[in-house]
C-alpha cells in the first residue's frame, strides 16, 4: 500500500513541489504523526467523500497512463530484448511508434451498456 508516511517522505524528498495524490486507507485516522500532505488527503476524503475527492484531485487521470502501459505490454511485450541501454531506448521508441500507428488506424468504439 502506498498510503504510508515513508512513501510521502520519499516523494517529498525527491519532488518537493509535487502534489501527492494517494487515496488514504479506509482505517486511517487523523493525528499529528501523519505527514502533512497525507493529512490533507485524509481530511479531503472525509470532507468530500472518496468519489468527490477523486474528482477534485483528478485521480482518474492515472488510469489513462495505466491503460496505455497495459496496451504497450500486450502488443509489444513485457520485457526488452536488447542488452545495451542505447538499443533498449531504440526498442522502446520503435514499440511506441507501433502503438501510435495502431492508434492512428483506429481505436474500437466502446459504449456503456447499463
List the defining traits of the structure above.
about 110 residues, mainly alpha, about 60% helix
Architecture overview:
This protein is mostly helical. It has 4 helices and no strands. It has helices at 5-14, 36-56, 61-75, 85-105. The longest helix has 21 residues, at 36-56.
In short:
With 114 residues, the protein is an all-alpha fold. It contains 4 helices and no strands.
Low-confidence segments, given as residue ranges, are none
| Helix-strand string | HHHH
Strand residue content: under 5%
How would you sum up the global shape? flat
Fraction of residues in helix:
55-70%
Distance between the termini: 32 Å
State the total count of DSSP E strands: 0
Give Rg in angstroms: 19 Å
Largest sheet: none
Number of discrete helical segments: 4
Q: What is the averaged pLDDT score? A: 82
> What class, by secondary structure content?
mainly alpha
Write the layout of secondary structure elements.
Elements: H1 5-14, H2 36-56, H3 61-75, H4 85-105
Amino acid at each position: 500500500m502506498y498510503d504510508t508516511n515513508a512513501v510521502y517522505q520519499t516523494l517529498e524528498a525527491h519532488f518537493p513541489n509535487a502534489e501527492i495524490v494517494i487515496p488514504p486507507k479506509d482505517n486511517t485516522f487523523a493525528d499529528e504523526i501523519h505527514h502533512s500532505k497525507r493529512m490533507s488527503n485524509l481530511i479531503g476524503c472525509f470532507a468530500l467523500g472518496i468519489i468527490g475527492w477523486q474528482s477534485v484531485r483528478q485521480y482518474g487521470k492515472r488510469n489513462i497512463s495505466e491503460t496505455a502501459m497495459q496496451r504497450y505490454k500486450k502488443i509489444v511485450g513485457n520485457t526488452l530484448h536488447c542488452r545495451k541501454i542505447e538499443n533498449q531506448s531504440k526498442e522502446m521508441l520503435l514499440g511506441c511508434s507501433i502503438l501510435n500507428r495502431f492508434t492512428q488506424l483506429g481505436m474500437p468504439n466502446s459504449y456503456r451498456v447499463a
